[in-house]
Amino acid sequence: MSKSNPTSSVPEPHALFPLTLLDISPAGIGVNFTWLVRGRLDTELIQASIGRVTNKWRLLAGRVEFAKNEFPYPLQLRIPLAPELDESKYKTFAFTETTSTVPLTQYVPLPIPTIHPALPHHLTCHQHTPKSAQEWIKRSLPLLWWHVTHFPSSLGGVGIKDDYTCIGISFPHGVFDGMGCVLILRALQAEMYQRDWDVPPPLQEGLNANPLLEIIEARTKELESGSEKGDGLNSMPYAFFENGGIWQVIRFVWRQFWQERWYGATKKTLVLPACTVKDLVDEVKEELQNEGITTRITTGDVIAAWLYKACYLPSIYSDGTPGHSSTFLSNIGQLRAIIAPNDDLKHYLHNCFLPLPYPVLTVTELQATPIYRLVCTLAQARESRTPEESIRAYAFLQDSYSKIKPAAVWYRPPGVDEEFILSNMTVFKLEEVDWGMVGGKETICIYRSLLSPAPIDFSDQGTVNGWIQGPSGSGDGKLVIELFLNRARWERLEGWIANLEKQKQKQ
């Protein structure tokens, strides 16, 4: 692949906005969020709204490029600043749409079942959508690519009385993180409803400062001078990144291939009724109260612990993994409020997250730990994060990319044997996008996919997508979780869900 920066299409005048080392690790993949909506969405209104957003928030109309013409140097954005942009010559976003020739029920039954297969990619994104920041750079494409698939009611299908629409947004993960996508969606919803929104101040022509980098550099100087408790920057090295060479990458990809082809790993969507989630949370709270434990827990803590232990652990034993093998729940938390509590990063769209400092547990320890105690452990670890942790993480990346130049960086402590990767998107409230003004009657489900150049998907991971409300916000909520698990783990989880449903029916 050419490593040049084909940015000649960006018209003058333009601004340059540098990204940070936190954007390098996820640069090898893209992200797609998709909403399945009852009703036919008016794509002309949507495109007009997106156009107003990219015109007002010019950073979104830019192009990504290598800061030093090669990877893994940091990325930067080149952003047009002209008062008017000719969309026929310079696209500020990509938008494609198609009409299905088969009913929606060929892909997912209606009403949505508790467990159903993930939607195929051709419904959620265009076949030519890039799968890495490098591909976005090579093709000099807009940062946002929207894709719509219409399902007319005339196609038929069991239970189909209305039109349905899949609408997806894809973007390079090396540029935006989940919270960044949410900020874009909030702006879009405001434009669809013709409401005012908090438009970020315009960038200046030439090189602009990255606010996250400014905060990190200021805090780094404080730590290096030992101004806080006499601790220097390297007194407590960051322990939740692992550098990988080319052979580790090959082994990782081979393991994913083996999980998919030999162990039957597949991606499915789990839709849990609100009452089921409430029962799980109430049971944990009752156990903690009985023991006098006052740690504040969230629904996310409970779901994370449940997925880690109730669904993940038993299959480790069925795979023959010894009890002394180490396991790690790799979950991420965003840093905006931690490193900049004064809203200095309220408009920051780019990668601003780190792994949560969860403990490494052996298989035996995980088996012996009750769910409620595991929930408490995860919650305490989540609350223990400090700004200094992020400074040390950034120092680790600086040292790695300047000396080692790793082929990949994993979000886990070095030497872990088994890892389950979790991403909790509920705090971002992606499900709250209201498509009503453009023809949407009800959001049926939400999906998230990682777009990878590798011809395989990555197993042993899950995403908690968020809550879906009933028709007209009736409160009949359901929690959507997407999981990529092997056959044994799915069998265990499906059996557990079936038992829960039987118990609910008896009540």
Question: Describe it for me?
Answer:
This protein is of the alpha+beta class and 507 residues long. It folds into two domains: 14-201, Chloramphenicol Acetyltransferase (2-Layer Sandwich), CATH 3.30.559.10; 260-426 and 455-506, 2-Layer Sandwich (Chloramphenicol Acetyltransferase). Helix content is 33%, strand content 22%. It has 13 helices and 19 strands. The chain has helices at residues 43-56, 121-124, 133-139, 178-192, 211-224, 246-261, 274-290, 299-318, 336-339, 363-368, 371-383, 387-404, 487-506, and strands spanning 14-18, 30-38, 63-66, 75-80, 94-99, 115-117, 145-151, 164-172, 206-207, 242-244, 266-273, 326-334, 353-355, 361-362, 408-410, 418-424, 442-451, 461-468, 478-485. The strands form four sheets. Strands 6, 11, 12, 13, 14, 16, 18 and 19 form an eight-stranded mixed sheet that branches. A hairpin with an 8-residue loop joins strand 3 (63-66) and strand 4 (75-80). Helix 7 crosses helix 11 (371-383), helix 8 packs across helix 11 (371-383) and helix 8 (299-318) packs across helix 13. It is globular and about 65 Å long. The model has no long low-confidence stretch (mean pLDDT 87).
